[in-house]
Design goal:
Length: 300
Amino acid sequence: MKTDNLVNITQKYTDLYAEKAIAWAMTSGIKVIIISIAACIIYKILVGFIAKAVRIAVRPEKHQSKESEIKRENTLISIFTTTAKIAIITISSLMILSEFGIEIAPIIAAAGIVGLAFGFGGQYLIRDVITGLFIILENQYRIGDVVRFDTLSGAVEDISLRKTTLRDMDGTVHHIPHGEIKTVSNLSKDFSKVNLDMGVGYSTDLEHLIKVINEVGDELAQVSPFKESILKAPQFLRVNEFADSAIVVKIVGETLASKQWEVTGELRKRLKIAFDKEGIEIPFPQLVVHQAPKPTTDII
């Protein structure tokens, strides 16, 4: 008898829970499915919209290669897509929890308190992320560029939303939070310049000097491997200064990005060889010492 009563009670509760499950499935269950499908559809639409919007908004720069432009666009698309994905998952999850009968108001309130605390504690992190987003959006520099941040300079090895990683000429790696960056000097954006000052003796024939400099610059721009890096051959620009022991002349040219140092180094070598051949003096600082005459004493 007890066994029969137990079976009847179990069957009764099973039927009751089955009815509730069917009722929930016909109402809230359908809503959960609709919310999930809608979230997936909205995400797909946003991904396509973000991709098109970024490719329209990002304008190619004059000296930027197609590959660099695509990398920049893909970076921005990835950032915006990830942000949209997090937002959609968060909103849809809260809506689904409410359909399971869970009060989401306390969750939202708790999230607000946590967000406020995080905002006070992580304000520097938020500043770094926002600044990093604008650095990428404005294409201030890219991986491989040579940049200078105030007192630090080097080649950019990595860029994230929070920080930039530089490696200087000594091989030292620097990690700079974006919020700490005040001034950015890109030494290899689009193209670079040869900017060389050289001193020659005051007895030098300037017309002859100009001819030699221009010939050396033209010759350098025609030989491998430097001709692939030179956009404009280094040429005499002007007499830049009358120094204490030399006439300083300025030589300028244009190269591909980050190629100015090796081109300038080769130009110095060739100019020294040409100056020696042509008898053009490269003076070194000289100091003239005047010795006062010794006083004479009259012998009485």
